[in-house]
Every structure is written in structure tokens, then in C-alpha cells.
Amino acid sequence: MTLKPTGRLLAGLLLLASLPAAAQLPPAAAWATEVETRYNFAPDVTYVTEQGIELKLDVYSRRDVQTPQPALLFMHGGFWVAGSKDAQTLNILPWLEKGWNVVVVGYRLGGVAPAPAALVDTFCALRFVAAHADQYNIDVQRIVASGQSAGGHLALGLGLLADEGYDSGCPAGDTPRVAAVINWFGVTDVVDVIEGPHRSDSAARWFGNMGREEVLALARRLSPLQHVREGLPPILTIQGDADAVVPYAQGEALDTALDQTAVPHEFLTIPGGGHGRFTAGERARIYETINRFLQDNGLE
Q1: Which residues contact 258 (CB under 8 A, 6 or more apart)?
Q2: Helix (H) or strand (E) holding 201
Q3: Count of domains in the chain?
Q4: Dihedral class, residue 200 (left if φ above 0, else alpha if ψ from -120 to 50, else beta)
Q5: Which site among 24, 113, 197, 214 is 20 to 30 Å from 300 CA-CA?
Q6: Is residue 128 part of a domain?
Q7: What tens digit of pLDDT does each residue of 193-240 get?
Q8: Burial 101-111 (b: 16+ CB within 10 A, else e)
Q9: pLDDT at residue 19 above 80?
Q10: What is the reported pLDDT for 8?
């Protein structure tokens, strides 16, 4: 016997047929439900041991693709004496949504080891990533360095101080050149924040008990502004013009110096923006700029 659907039953069947389309998640929500299937997460991986301390990094690596993928190497802020890699999850979410591998680096803070230890550790982390590129499915030719505040300084250090020997004490291996630097309001003139008009007690603590002349000489060597030259990787700087921690003038000075070279570079000003804590609209503009910057430089 063949059953013919009544009007009520037919309406119900039509409703059920429409449910899958109506129940589809928005793109962001759909990504959030799927991200666990796309990534392996390796927390607290030891990349080097210094002074008996195991230094750690976290690796988010794609597991749903077979070919090597671009990677972001991200360093936290805190004027080199505070902060933690463990508080950076929200900062890297846009990169995971983009499908990039992400490595978040922990480094020795000033209370453990004075300058230039944090930069030395960052170079060792970069070398570790290159040595384990196959394990984490990373394209060594497409590693982008980034960070905020002191982390921005360290990212700039990877790009501008690569020939200064800060990786000489790292475990054996090759240190690759980073493909680009995305500098979020990073320190470009270290002297300025330890003994200049914008001195910060926190920043000065990075240098421990060194004598004044030794501090100033080292601070100059650690200042990205002192190393601007041809042949650098592309550099994007992001900064609010009301930044009260790292002066906006430092970002301007870096951009002006880069203008005298053929290095691809951009300086994105956030009008009225402070030291991070940008609005949702401002962050949307920032990531639109980042995406275009990466595309323009062959990294997407």
C-alpha cells in the first residue's frame, strides 16, 4: 500500500528538508568547530637549555595538509622583563584561521638573564624551528617573525640583526633568514627607553647591573634603527599614534630610515590608538593590511 502524505505531513517533510541549510554555521563558527581536526598542538616544547633552564615554545602545526606550510614565529611583550608565551592565544587566532602554522616563543626574562639573552633565545628558537621543519610541516622559506612591544623588538631583531652573531651559542644547525617581519609597536631605539626621554624602569631592568657605558653601548647594538640597510626582509610596522609606552616616534623613525632603502616596508598608523588594545574595527583594518602585505610579498 502506498501512503500519500497529508498536507500536514508534507509540510513537516518540507521543514525537515530545509533544516540542514538553515542550521549551517557562520564561517567563523564553522572554523571554530573544525580547528581541532586541522591542527596538532605541541605545548611546552624545549628548544634549548640555558643556565640549566629549559626554554619552551608552543607549536600549532597543520595536520590536514601534506605540503610544508608558512609559519608565524611570535614573541610576547613585557619590556623583556615580564609577560609569558602562555597568554598569547587570542593574538594568534587570526593566523590559525588563515591556516598558518604558529610557533609561540618563551624566552629568558631580565630577572633571569640580562640583555641580550632574550634576543639570543629568539634566534635559538628560530634555529630549532628550522631544524624540526619536517616534523612540524613548516616551510623554512616562509617563516614570518612577529611580536608585540618587546616582542616586536625581538621580531625586528631576527630580521635586522641576523648577522650580529646572536645565534652563535645556539645548538648546532643553520639559522634561516625570516621571510618578513610584522612589528606590532615594537621598540626600535633601545637607548630611548632605558636612558632617554621615554625611559621606562621596566626596560632599564633588562640590563641588570651593568655599568652605564656598557649598557649604552649594548643598547645601541640592540636597536633595530642602527641596522637599517639594503637586503632586509619586508617589514610591516603597526602602531597607534597615541602610544604612551613605546613612542610612536620610534615607529616613524624606523619607517623614515627604511624609506632610504629599497626594502619593502609599510607603516600602518592607528589614529588615536594606544599601546595595543585596539578596537575590533581597528584590528579588522590591521589584518586586512597584514593579508595584503603578505600577498604583495609572495607569502600567501
Answers
A1: 228, 232, 235, 265
A2: helix 201-205
A3: 1
A4: beta
A5: 24
A6: yes
A7: 998 888 899 899 999 999 999 999 999 999 999 999 999 999 999 999
A8: bbbbbbbbbbe
A9: no
A10: 53
